[in-house]
Amino acid sequence: METAPHPLVIRARRLAEDLLAPHAQRVDQDGVPVSHIDALRTSGLLGMSAPEAYGGAGAPDAVAREVQEILAGACCSTWFVQTQHHTPVRLLARSESPARERLLGPLATGAILSGIAYAHVRAFPRVLVRATARRGGRRFDGTVPWYTGWGLNDVMLLAGVGEDAEVVFAFADAREQPGLRPSPPMRLAALSAARTVSLELDGLWVPEDSVVLRVGQEEFARGDIPRSANTSPAVFGVAYAALRLLERAPEAERTAGALRLRLDEVRRRAYALADHPVPHEHMAERLALRTRAYDLMRAATTAAIVAGGGRTMDLGSAAQRLAREGMFLLVQGQTAPVRQAHLASLGTAPPP
Ligand SMILES: Cc1cc2nc3c(=O)[nH]c(=O)nc-3n(C[C@H](O)[C@H](O)[C@H](O)COP(=O)(O)OP(=O)(O)OC[C@H]3O[C@@H](n4cnc5c(N)ncnc54)[C@H](O)[C@@H]3O)c2cc1C
């Protein structure tokens, strides 16, 4: 028996159908507008994983995944800006830092939007950003290579490496200020619309009460690597969006049907593993499913282009946009094990 969709899923579908999908081509070319962020702020979706006691919805992970799929399939750039927000929310919900009382409520209600600047700590022992104890707080120095949502979000969760290989996470205002200088927005093959910059940090100081987590690098990696082995819901979102395009072409009916069956199966298994209580178990299977989902996404976006013919090369076509968004998802959140597994599979696997 089908269960009724969660109210947040209904809200996400409405936002996707009424606003995100109809404007996705224009947003891809011109950038995510503030009005899209305002719509997200009032939608309640920014607080979906936040505790109810702080004004959030406390929704189960399965609901959060479905919402992410819907948003990514409608407008991947807008999805990417908002998806950053959920990591700080989840981290604060577990934190004992004074920042929790100050920030978790406004983050949960959407009054403030957060970005993240922490992928660079995965490159340890190469240190791109240092966080040193200074004057009752932390001083950040170095280069954040990627920071998405500049000019759209209000705060950032920034990470650097401190003494004794400790990874320090702290909140800072997401604006130019002494010690923090953004690059111009990057022009990229995909998702230029998400306003990604790099950040030069030269003595950016944050008070100790803005520090939300200090964790040894090894312990950080123990949590981060298994998490990143799971498949991002955005991969399924983009793949299903491409299949919906494909299904409009009568001669592609069989192709679309075959890909959908395989995608449904990979999704079911990937999400079952994401819900598995021990995150570091079944690593090989998690990585294999992530790779398989990439293969199917690539097949679906390619099929949408093949079925659409020459007109899909127009920048106004949804098929080329989805193919470029899919290309971006191949590297988003990539860690060394994910890259190794993907490359190994590309060298051996038969086509989907
Ligand atoms: C458009 C765009 C926007 C992005 N926005 C954000 C953002 O807002 N916030 C954010 O935090 N990240 C962001 N990222 C970063 C993104 O998630 C990373 O691209 C991804 O984690 C891969 O890392 P990398 O590109 O730095 O690649 P690489 O530097 O090639 O690293 C890939 C992986 O290899 C490993 N590695 C690299 N160097 C070493 C080394 N010397 N020793 C050991 N292991 C190493 C690490 O595990 C690393 O994760 C963005 C990326 C893109 C393309």
TrEMBL record:
Pfam families: Acyl-CoA_dh_N (PF02771). InterPro entries: AcylCoA_DH/ox_N, AcylCoA_DH/ox_N_sf, AcylCoA_DH/oxidase_NM_dom_sf. GO terms for molecular function: acyl-CoA dehydrogenase activity; flavin adenine dinucleotide binding. Residues 11-110 form the Acyl-CoA dehydrogenase/oxidase N-terminal domain. PANTHER family: ACYL-COA DEHYDROGENASE, ISOVALERYL-COA DEHYDROGENASE, MITOCHONDRIAL-RELATED. This is Acyl-CoA dehydrogenase. It comes from Streptomyces cyaneogriseus subsp. noncyanogenus.
